[in-house]
Amino acid sequence: MRGLAILTLLLLLTTVLIANPMPDFRLPDESGKNVSLSELLGKGPVIIDFWADYCQPCKQAMPALQELVNKYDSLTVVLISLDAPKAQPKAKAYLKSKNYKFITLFDPDKTLAKKLNVENPPHTFILDKTGEIVYSHLGYEPGIEKEYEHKIRKLLGLAYEEGEECTCTEKCPDCQEK
Predict the structure, then answer these.
(1) Which of 111, 140, 166, 168 has its CA 20 to 30 A from that of 34?
(2) Helix segments in 19-55, DSSP class H
(3) Is residue 137 helix, strand or coil?
(4) 137, 51 in Cβ contact below 8 A?
(5) CA 81 to chain centre
(6) In the CATH scheme, what is the code of domain 2-156?
(7) 69 near 102, Cβ under 8 Å?
(8) Could you read off the pLDDT of 64-91 as tens digits, one per residue?
(9) Which residues contact 30 (CB under 8 A, 6 or more apart)?
(10) Given phi > 0 = left and psi -120 to 50 = alpha, else beta, which region is 171?
C-alpha cells in the first residue's frame, strides 16, 4: 500500500514538472564561463542530467547518453554536476578521461536542482527545443535509454520505419508494437 502511495506521488510530481518549462538558469561550465538555458535551446531536444562524481548510477548512464549524442546530431546533452567545489576537479578529470561530448555545468549550491526538486542524482530531464520539460526520470537502470530515445525521436518527428526496432516500453502509435 505504501509503495502505491509513493508511486502515485511520483507520478503526480512528474506530471507537475512536465507541465512546466525548465526554469531559466546561468551556470558555470568547466572553464568558468556562465552558460544560460537559452544558449542551449533551439537546435533540438536537450537532455539535462544531474549527476555527481560519487554517483555510480550516474556514471553507468553516461555511455548510453553518449550513444544518443552520437546518433542524433541535433540532440544536446548537458550534465549538471552537483559536486561541491572541492570535488569538482575530480568530476572534471573523470569526464575528461572518458572523452564524453557533453556540455558540463556545475550547480554546487544546488540552486537549479532545488527549483526542480532534484534531491538525488541521477535525475534526467528531456526538454523540447523551446525548453518545455517533456520527460523526467529519477535514477538509472539499464534500458531506460530506450525510453529516452523514443522521446527524442518523437521530438525530432522521426517515425520508425518498417523493420526498425521501436524503443518504446508501451504500445505507441509510432510503431504499433507491444
Answers:
(1) 140
(2) 37-40
(3) strand
(4) no
(5) 12
(6) 3.40.30.10
(7) yes
(8) 999 999 999 999 999 999 999 999 999 9
(9) 92, 104
(10) beta
Angle between helices 144-156 and 56-71 (to 10 degrees): 30
Residue 21 per-residue DSSP state? B
172 burial (CB, 10 Å; 0-12 / 13-18 / 19+) is middle
Asked if 80 contacts 112 with a C-beta cutoff of 8 angstroms, the reply is: yes
Q: Which of 86, 26, 21 is nearest to 52 (CA)?
A: 86
Reading the block at residue 56, the C-alpha cell is: 555510480
**Contact yes or no for 49/122 (Cβ under 8 A):** yes
Domain edges within the chain:
2-156
For the chain, the farthest-separated pair of C-alpha atoms sits apart, in whole angstroms, at: 51
> What's the full length of the chain, in residues?
178
H or E segment and range at residue 96 = helix 88-98
Give the global pTM.
Answer: 0.80
DSSP label of 117: T
The mean pLDDT value for 125-129 works out to 95
